[in-house]
Amino acid sequence: MITAILTRVGYALVSLFVITNYGLLLIGSMARISAKVQGRVGQPVWQPYLDIIKSTAKRNSISHGVMFYLGPVFRLAGGVGTYLFIPAVFGSALFRNFSDSGDLLLVMYFIFFGQLGMALGASEGGHPYSAIGVSRGLAQMTAFEVPFALSVIAVAIQYKTLDITAIVAAQQGGFLHWTVATNPVAVVAALIAFLGMSMHNPFSVVIAPQEIPIGPPTEYQSNLLGMLQTNRAIFNGAKLVLYMNLFFGGATSLPVMVIKTFLIYFINVFVGQAFPRLRVDQSIRFFLGAPTVIGVAGVIIALL
Amino acid sequence: MVNPLYLFAASLAAAFLLPLVDKLGRRASLALVYLVGLAWLAAAVSWLLALVQGGVAQDFGTAGFMAPLAIVLRVGLLEAAGVLAVAAVGLLSAAAMHASLRQAPAGGAMAFLMLLMGLCGVILTRDLFNLFVFLEISAIATYSLIGFDDRRPALRSAFKYMLAGGIASALYLIGVIYVYRFGDTLNLDLAIRAPGLAGAAGNAALFFLLAALLVELKPFPANGWALDVYQTAHPGLAAMLSGASATALLLALWKLLPLFGTAHLVIIAGSGLATFLAGNLAGARQRYTRRMLGYSSVAQIGLAMAVLALGTLFKLGSELFLLAVAGGFVLNHLLAKTGLFLLSAAFEQAGLTDAAGVDGVDVVDTVDDAAGASAAAQPARRLSPLALAVAGGLVLALVGLPPFPGFWAKWQLVQALADRSRWWLIGLILGGSLVEAFYMLRWLGRLVAARGAAPVPTLRLGAGLLGPAVAAVALAGLGVLSGVFGLTGALDPKAGSTLASLAGEPWLWAPWAVAAVLFLLDWLPGWLKGLLALGAVAAFAWLVQDRLDGLRQIFAIMLLGGGGLFIVAALRKPGSRGGLHPLLAMVTLSLGAVLLAETRLGFFFAWETMTLSSWLLVRRGQASRQPALSYIVFGLGGAFLLMVGLAAGGFDSAGAWPSGALASWPFLLALVGILVKAGALGLHVWLPGAYAEADDESSGLLSASLSKAAVFGLFALVLSRGIPGSLSISLGAIGGPWLWRALGWVGLATALAGALYAVWQEDIKKTLAWSSMGQIGYIILAFALMDQAGWTASLYLAFNHFLYKSMLFLAVAGVIQRVGTRNMYEMGGLIKKMPVSFLTVLMAIIALSGVPPLTGFGGKWLLYSSLIAKGWYLEAAVAFFASGVAFLYLYRLIHSIFLGQPKLNQSGVREAPLALIAPQLLLMGVLMALSVFPKLLLDPILEITSRVFPPTLGFSGDALVSPLGYWNGTLTMIVTGGVFALCLLWLVINLRNSQGVRQFNIVFAGERPLRPETTHYAWRFFEPYRQAVGGLVRSRAERFWVLVGGGVSAVGGALRRLYTGNGQTYALHVVMYVVVLYLVMGVVL
């Protein structure tokens, strides 16, 4: 019993270690690719590591209160937890994680755990820009969740289950069995939602990365910021793995996972470089428009 | 039995002696009047006693002969009761008019004596001409009594009365002549059998009698004169007219009924119903109390008249049944209206010229205006609790709320009409009743002064309150008797068993008993009353525990447990907090009664008790006048629908809905009635205002517990019987799937609209109110799934909503108490001042939003799993959207209040009082326990739902497994806890040289923030969101109901224009009315 528990915990830690490093490298490489597109040299691929080390090594940290401290803890726990509730590699005991805690619905709702905690922590910082960022982020979130939920429903209809492992299992046997081949419309809706979820352009107004610092992390510094940066890597990884599992046939090995998630993430960069930023009300109207219709179409196709 | 002739002789003798006695002083002559009144009263009581103990009705001939040689007086049960009523009202009125009778000449006292005697004669005589004589005596006495009042309006109204009365007398006399000509007799009993009255000529002859009586009964539109009299005459006299005179005339009509044929009955019924409707519609527009009472008076008399005729026309039941129902209405009206007129007399004597004349606002004011508008026009003096209780009792009786006689009569009438499928009649009667309830309760609501404002002097009513108090006590006593023994029980205990009663359900009276005791003890300190109320709830729960099956046990925790928590919360403020504890206890126990009711009448009784007591609780709030009015009008409207549904259900012998009936319209009506209480979209307009404006602990009780009574109502409705029965349901009996699909969309629309509205509120309690509405929407949606998973989700969501909404309201009550505002943007940064409240709110919003690992996620998981499994995909997507919207207002709630920049003027704020913190801690504990071990809650729920439906959900180890997926709450909690601990460890390890900074020390673009007000981002928090999706919610329902209210008001206004105040017009009305009646009779014949 204890051995079994320790084994699972050990596996989970290894899995976490892998996804963290992969996520950091992914962010670094994407930043570099973006730079190339814009004709800049860009940062080195390992820059995210340097950022985290620098932040963590700061001599002192400013505190606005207990909740302020707990914000990054919630955020990181949210990212790690989300990842741990998803089976990362199909059929692998090492990367099975704690996916027996719950099905797809658990993952979809656990995503909010970190966001909510972070929002609260940022709020205690007392900076108006944090609250503005949260209000924008939440507002946008309600909208892009609609096409995402519709595509998830389409998946549930198609495979008659919400169990992620079972969904991956049903897509085995070649490209034509992937959801992207069997119900491409639903996947389109999901990928549009993914753009919003990743908060890249044109949906980046939440943190508005290029201008004055705005958004939830405004007041965060030192190792608190380091935790947020770590989370960004893990959380990105978790979402990518989830998308891969639901729509792109999952992965039977680590290299396959790396390739697939890299390509999915690339969609972000691709769109982000091509479109300008939208205002919040514009992006809400956008998500509730065409993507929702596409999502409904995806559900109808799944029913046929 | 005492021969009534002696009493007539005594009355006449006293009247003749009065001028002599008056030489001894006015006191002596008035004493003589009282003495005669007492003699009538004593005689009536002795008759009643003799008759109840097995005596039979007795005829008394005059001059030693019997009919047809002489006039006969009859003393039967009804006559005795009628004389008793007239004498009692007469004494009370005389007492109220004491001062004015002292000022008037001796003729005043004489006229009063004659009025009393005339009315008794009208009741007792069996001779048609003698009836005319007594009618004339009482009419002339009334003219002169009005005329003794020197005010011009009174004189004018007396003259108008004479005009109308003159026409009526002439008609009656013509009728008598013809009846004698065709029937050869004037004795009523002989005339009934007279063959000459059977033909067309006889019909015409009888028509004249009838027309005269009807005119005297003040029918629409020939009643302008009566309204002017009610408004201008001395209120004591108005009481006499509205109470005693109308009773006597109705008894006269009842006596003549056997003479009449179908055509006459149709006329009576039609005229009565028209009067009832028109009177109430016009009454809704009244600003003056006494004229409003006048409208209500003519309406009630119209109803009683109609019931008498309808009973015979449609054979609604035995004669006893009819007497019980019509008698119930008459008795109710008699006592209530007498009491109210006397009360208005007392107000006048105390110097309040027109006590809280209502301001003519529409049924549904816009919710935002309500708070502002109601603060302005409060009466300058407030009533003492006793006066308020008396006024309340009288008005509630008039409106037909439990436990007063009108309630039982209404139930019996609706049941009987439903049995004979007379739906349109039910609609008319209940519609009119609702309008009447609206304006009477509006008036009552205005009598309650605002609390907490500057102290207002109490109005001293003194002895003037005695009459109304007697009437109120009599009403309550008779009402309780009617309830316990059946409606006829009050009249004749032997017949009690023939009509429905609550004889078998004593615990349904618990709310009333406890409220009565606690109101009597209202002078005690608050903490002691709180303990007593808590003890009452605990004792009730302990006593009824054996009667609770699984479903009821779960609801009992929510309803009784919730009530207990908020009673504890009420200890948060020192002082007596008058009325709060009795009402909290009453609401809580009425919720318990809803659970326990075993008959349909019992269920409806408990439901009305709940509606009524919660209305009083809402009205206790400071600026609650308008919201409370919406609350009670919608509550009563819903209750009426429920009543019709329950009455018309056509239940089988086991009390179950007949097969296939769940899609039938009685079921739909009952369903809609319950949805009103649940606040479903479209029927929700009462909700935000009521929740927001009630006292803070009361709001919590309404939202967390009382809304669950509506949820229980849903389950009870489907689980056979129309009332909670055993958990046996035959699935074949469930209505068409379209019904449930539609109900599901209603729930969904409610959920979405509630969430969206909540996003844009600045008022913290309004946010929670809308949020409650939204959460109930999910419960309805899950309920509508009609399978095991759906019902499991519904019950689970309901219990969770109880938990977290209690926590939120408790915490928010503390915040409001400490900062003194409900506007969220005026708060900020309270986390350091109120850490426990913050923690409560934090846990509650995590649970509400459904974020794992807290118990709320279970609700979301169950909901989506069951929706997708059922194939309700679009519903699932919309529910997902609505759930997302909830994040918006929840974040805003906690951010604006507890986080961000603290306001400088709130630096002295402390944590909430212990009375609020202790329940919060308890609820947090429960929430955590259920989060770690979801089985604790899910096992009992699954046990219930698996008995009703084939199970699809089940536990495998700690994991709950559905056909689609699984959820292991315990493992989720462990993983989350572990990961959180790991991250916290990481933080602590890397935390070096942490430095706390002061307020405003933030990275603010090189600038120092000026004030918290400009730095705390809180006002219009989600403005971009409103720009994007605000179009989804545009208060359509509110506008619809404002239109409905406006329409009703406009019709009332138009009807009112008939009453020009011109005597000639009024006389024309009377003549035209008679002509129209005659023509109608021709058509019906």
Compile the SSE list and pairings.
The complex is a heterodimer of chains A (304) and B (1085).
Chain A: H1 2-37, H2 47-56, E1 61-63, H3 66-84, H4 104-124, H5 128-159, H6 164-170, H7 179-182, H8 184-198, H9 222-247, H10 254-274, H11 280-288, H12 290-303
Chain B: H1 4-21, H2 26-52, E1 58-61, E2 72-75, H3 77-96, H4 98-103, H5 106-124, H6 128-148, H7 152-183, H8 188-193, H9 200-216, H10 224-232, H11 235-256, H12 262-283, H13 289-313, H14 319-349, H15 367-376, H16 385-399, H17 405-419, H18 423-447, H19 466-485, H20 510-520, H21 526-544, H22 550-569, H23 580-596, H24 600-619, H25 625-648, H26 665-678, H27 687-693, H28 696-718, H29 737-759, H30 764-784, H31 788-819, H32 835-849, H33 856-870, H34 873-898, H35 914-932, H36 935-948, E3 954-956, E4 959-961, E5 966-968, H37 969-990, E6 994-996, H38 1012-1015, H39 1023-1029, H40 1036-1056, H41 1063-1084
Antiparallel strand pairs in B: 1-2, 3-4, 4-5
Helix pairs in contact in B: 1-2, 1-5, 2-3, 2-5, 3-5, 3-11, 3-14, 5-6, 5-11, 6-7, 6-11, 7-9, 7-10, 7-41, 9-11, 10-11, 10-13, 11-13, 11-14, 12-13, 12-18, 12-40, 12-41, 13-14, 13-18, 14-16, 14-17, 14-19, 16-18, 16-19, 17-19, 17-25, 18-25, 20-23, 21-22, 21-23, 22-23, 22-28, 22-31, 22-35, ...
